[in-house]
User: What shape does this take?
Amino acid sequence: MECQNGFNRSSAESGTDPNPAPHATHPLLGDLPRMFALVQGFDDDGDGGEEEADVAVEVVAYGIALPSGQTTTFGTNGRNFGVWNSPRSAAKRLHSDLVWLGE
Assistant: This one.
C-alpha cells in the first residue's frame, strides 16, 4: 500500500527505507580533507615529568587541506581568511607551526 510520501508501508514498518539518501549508502571514495591548526609560541607545561609536553600559547588559524593540497585557513579572530597551495606554505607565511588535528 502506498503512503503519501511514496514509501511502501510494509518497508516503512520494517524499518528499511526504500529510497535511502545517497550519502548513507555510498562510502566516500579517495582521500578525505584534513583539519589543522597554525600555532605560535610553544611553552613548556612545567610539570617536570618525563612526558613533558609543549603547549601552544596561541592558535593563529584553523584550516582544512583538500586531498589536492589546496588549503584554506580561517583566523581565530574571525576576520583573516587565506587560500594557500599547501598547509606548510600557510604555516611558513604566517610564521606558525603546523599541528594536524584529529590524528
